[in-house]
Write a structure and sequence with these properties.
about 550 residues, alpha/beta, nine-stranded mixed beta sheet, two-stranded antiparallel ribbon, 13 strands
Length: about 550
């Protein structure tokens, strides 16, 4: 009996020691505030959800023809003949702007006609901050905001949100992570309130706020044309359409096949280079009218949060292109908006290394996650061959990383130099990425063959990093520094030399066309057009469905 009582006492004492420790580990977990990008739906003042096209979605063939004629008329009669493109730009704007009229902002970067994020969703976000909700045993709060506006339009409300979360949870600190366009708001918040000591750990997840080629080079008009890249891009569209990934501007299946087969044949007969050379010369003549017209018509020009993604090196040229040079009427009209752009630039993006240095001085432990394996969403942007997740390249997302072009590797000389420096461990197994040059290589995780929309695979790393005290790639158990994602099985594994192959579309372009491959491509093109004609005659396809 005494032995039983002794064993019982030992058990109770052991339980008394280990149980508080277990609860203590749970108690140490901090609440997490999440700031996502542009996924929040927009609504009008009456509570109706807005879309880019405010109509019923149906387009008559006559309307398409009329719009095309309205745009082509000044293109041919004034632009091509006399190199005057102003009326062409106006025609592009007038035909496209009505489709985006309800989602655009005014000349000061403010919402028009009471549009914005649903008041109910905002209220729910504020209410959540008073309580809590759990995701996979982690306490997470999602801050809701109008992603079109300047990040500084939201920082004070976000600060109150953080205070509410701390009060509700009894904590003196929170951890935070931002993704995609949410990076701009996160950085603005940390710039203004990061010194208060409320923030412990921060993770920048595939953020665009370090710069995005797609946005920066488009806003500044620095578009380029490359035949090999273009065919690989079409192959990527084909791959994404078949796997239903919805990345970039994937066409409907039939149209995608037409584009792919035509591009393949043109490449076989070496016609694409000549075609693109002509397009590049034409673009150099008309881009000053076309780019501002498109960006204003679609609303991107007035959405300050997109301007946070413009590289510092491109900012002045982008401002001059989109709003005109200093002293012009357009520049004056948009002064309020430009002031907001420059306000963020002055405090954050003009000196990103200095911004991250300040976070360190404020005692904030931060890191990055980045993805690559996909080509840029647009096939005509400068640096389009830099590996990325389709929207942001790895050199930006993993702030300062070095990368080889897609489908190639870092040179042997470069790799040997890194090894000699003791930085060989930061070279990816596929020899495409070097993280030793990134801002904090020991706090940067990379996932290959995952596009920007793939978010869930990095959840375990996000939560372990944000829960931990000073976690690094050597201490986080949820994943290794270099990982590989299988889009078919949705499994994540450690990247090795044996499993690090590129996705199939990277090998679609025939590098050395021969007579045999040219004939094969020609017959494929003929068969494809014959199938298209049969479907058109039999009524299986119409122009409305062809263009989605």
């Amino acid at each position: 009996m005494k032995r039983f009582i002794s064993l019982l006492l030992v058990f109770v004492l052991t339980l008394g020691i280990t149980t508080p420790a277990a609860f203590a580990a749970e108690e140490e977990r901090l609440p997490i505030v999440y700031i996502r990008g542009n996924g929040e739906p927009l609504y009008d003042a009456d509570g109706n959800e807005l879309t880019a096209d405010s109509g019923d979605g149906s387009v008559e063939m006559e309307e398409i023809v009329e719009s095309v004629v309205n745009i082509l008329k000044p293109f041919v009669t004034e632009g091509m003949l006399f190199d005057k493109w102003d009326n062409y730009g106006k025609a592009v704007y007038e035909e496209i702007a009505p489709l985006f009229a309800d989602t655009g902002l005014d000349e000061n970067g403010n919402a028009k006609n009471g549009t914005g994020v649903s008041p109910e969703q905002l209220a729910k976000s504020e209410m959540d901050a008073q309580g809590s909700w759990h995701y996979d045993m982690h306490i997470e709060y999602e801050f809701c905001f109008d992603w079109r506006l300047s990040p500084y339009d939201h920082v004070d409300r976000l600060h109150q949100y953080v205070l509410d979360v701390m009060k509700a949870t009894g904590k003196t600190q929170v951890s935070m992570y931002g993704r995609c366009l949410g990076g701009g708001l996160l950085m603005a918040y940390l710039e203004k309130y990061g010194h208060l000591g409320h923030i412990k750990n921060v993770l920048f997840v595939d953020v665009l706020s370090n710069g995005s080629d797609i946005i920066s080079k488009t806003f500044s008009g620095k578009l380029e044309f490359d035949a090999d890249y273009l065919e690989n891009y079409v192959g990527q569209l084909d791959y994404c359409e078949k796997t239903n990934k919805g990345i970039g501007f994937a066409f409907p299946e039939l149209l995608n096949e037409i584009v792919f087969q035509t591009m393949d044949y043109f490449n076989q007969i070496n016609a694409v280079d000549a075609l693109l050379c002509g397009l590049e010369r034409l673009y150099s003549r008309l881009y000053k009218a076309l780019i501002p017209a498109l960006l204003h018509a679609m609303g991107y020009a007035t959405q300050v949060n997109y301007w946070t993604c413009v590289y510092e090196e491109d900012m002045d040229e982008a401002l001059d292109l989109i709003f005109g040079t200093e002293g012009t009427e357009t520049r004056t009209k948009y002064k309020g908006l430009i002031d907001k752009i420059l306000y963020y630039r002055e405090r954050v993006s003009s000196d990103l290394p200095g911004f991250y240095d300040q976070l360190t001085e404020n005692g904030i432990w931060f890191g990055f996650t980045a993805k690559y394996g996909y080509l840029a969403m647009l096939p005509i942007v400068k640096n389009e061959r830099t590996p990325g997740d389709s929207l942001v390249n790895i050199e930006s997302a993993a702030f300062g990383a070095t990368a080889a072009d897609m489908g190639t590797q870092l040179s042997e000389e470069y790799i040997n130099a890194r090894i000699a420096e003791g930085n060989g461990k930061y070279i990816s197994p596929d020899k495409m990425v070097d993280l030793s040059t990134s801002y904090c290589p020991d706090r940067t995780w990379v996932l290959k063959n995952a596009h920007h929309d793939e978010f869930q695979p990095v959840f375990p790393i996000i939560y372990e990093f944000l829960d931990g005290t000073r976690e690094t790639v050597d201490t986080v158990s949820a994943g290794t520094q270099f990982m590989i994602f299988n889009p078919e099985t949705r499994e994540v594994a450690e990247m090795t030399e044996s499993n690090c192959a590129d996705l199939a579309f990277m090998s679609t372009a025939e590098k050395n066309p021969t007579f045999v491959t040219m004939i094969k491509s020609y017959f494929s093109l003929c068969i494809m057009f014959f199938r298209f004609l049969v479907k058109l005659i039999t009524g299986e396809v119409d122009f409305g469905s062809l263009f989605g």
